[in-house]
Specification:
Radius of gyration of chain B: 19 Å
Strand content of chain B: under 5%
Distance between the termini of chain B: 63 Å
CATH topology of one domain in chain A: Signal recognition particle alu RNA binding heterodimer, srp9/1
Order of helices and strands of chain B: HHHHHHHH
Organism (chain B): Actinophytocola xinjiangensis
Number of strands of chain A: 8
Oligomer: heterodimer
Number of helices of chain A: 3
Number of helices of chain B: 8
Helix content of chain A: 10-25%
Distance between the termini of chain A: 59 Å
GO biological process, one term (chain B): DNA-templated transcription initiation
Shape of chain B: globular
Order of helices and strands of chain A: HEHEEEEHEEE
Protein name (chain B): RNA polymerase subunit sigma-24
Keywords (chain B): DNA-binding, Sigma factor, Transcription, Transcription regulation
Pfam family, one (chain B): Sigma70_r2
Number of domains of chain B: 2
Largest sheet of chain B: none
């Protein structure tokens, strides 16, 4: 005997919602995804860089290195950026500008000379990334070359930070 | 293409899926709650909750590659949450459980789908949610139990009461 309740089964029945709602939700979704959300936690270890011009750096790292802004920026009372975050494929890079409001915090942007650290970033296309970086003002320290560990290059970005770009062997 | 390879944000997949998935999610919710404004609210809740789910550090692989069926599952939970809220409000108004349950299943009749939907609308939220998940969605009892956050035993009992309430309303019930 069949159960009469079984006749209530509803097949998948797509319905287009009102266009205004669809647009509004798309914007809300894009906001939640692209500006990052406080619900994501940072990995245990994240580099925290000081740059002289964080707004330019955020744009450069996004446009040249494929990062995405995440979370809210913190803007100091003097207009400097006290804290901002970028997402690099799940890793987090934190940025801040020095501010005269905090003279006791001993940080500053890199100065020319030997580097104490390098940021190692895996990219899909090392050659293309280096070409874009050069066009956008980076110094190419080591042109792309095939190494045992993959296709690799070293650049210094316009804010003075050194990056090793690598595409590991397949 | 210079996007980092390490681990793309799985939430981006949701944005790509949005146009395709929206009518399915909205249609699923509208057919079950039969209220356009509520269906919009629950649709929005579904997509925004999905962002959090795919980004959760312990998200399963099936979750980090979002699909329409997975989103329907999220929508189902949002619908069940909604009915739980409504049921709580209803409990404040009148006692719903503890009714006598003399009804014997199975029930030999053919349901008129349109009338059945109207009857469902008139049932209390906890009866409506159990019947919707079990019969409109066609979920097995253990799955219904999982969505409602009840034990299988409690869900079976709820379904018996819900069927009885439905039957009373359908057979004689007030219009």
């Amino acid at each position: 005997m069949t159960d009469p309740f079984d006749s209530l089964h509803l097949p998948d029945s797509p319905v287009d919602p009102p266009g205004a709602f669809a647009d509004r939700l798309r914007r809300a979704l894009a906001d939640a995804i692209l500006t990052g959300a406080p619900m994501i936690n940072a990995p245990a270890l994240s580099p925290y860089l000081v740059v002289a011009d964080a707004r330019s750096a955020l744009a450069w790292y996004s446009e040249v290195l494929g990062a995405r802004p995440r979370g809210e920026r913190h803007v100091n009372a003097d207009g400097t950026i006290g804290h901002a975050e970028l997402d690099f494929g799940g890793a987090v890079l934190m940025l801040a500008e020095p501010s005269p409001l905090y003279p006791d915090v001993p940080v500053g942007p890199p100065t020319p000379g030997p580097f104490s650290h390098t940021l190692h970033l895996e990219v899909a296309d090392v050659d293309a990334t280096v070409a874009t970086a050069r066009r956008r003002g980076a110094t190419v320290e080591r042109a792309p070359a095939d190494e045992p560990y993959g296709r690799a290059a070293v650049i210094v970005d316009p804010f003075g930070h050194r990056w090793m770009l690598n595409r590991p062997p397949a | 293409m210079n996007a980092p390879r390490a681990r793309p944000d799985p939430a981006l997949g949701l944005l790509e899926l949005y146009e395709e998935a929206l009518p399915h999610v909205y249609g699923y919710l509208l057919a079950r709650c039969r209220d356009a404004a509520l269906a919009e609210d629950l649709t929005a809740e579904t997509f925004l909750a999905a962002v959090a789910s795919v980004r959760a550090p312990d998200a399963a692989a099936s979750v980090t590659a979002p699909s329409v069926p997975w989103l329907i599952g999220v929508a189902r939970h949002k619908l069940a949450d909604h009915w739980r809220r409504v049921a709580r409000e209803e409990r404040g108004l009148r006692r719903l459980d503890g009714e006598p349950e003399p009804v014997t299943d199975p029930w030999e009749t053919t349901l008129d789908a349109i009338r059945a939907r109207a009857v469902l609308d008139r049932l209390g939220a906890h009866h409506r949610s159990a019947l919707t998940l079990r019969y409109l969605d066609g979920l097995a009892v253990p799955e219904v139990a999982r969505v409602l956050g009840r034990t299988v035993h409690a869900t079976e009992a709820l379904l018996v009461r819900a069927r009885a309430a439905f039957r009373r309303e359908y057979q004689g019930g007030s219009p």
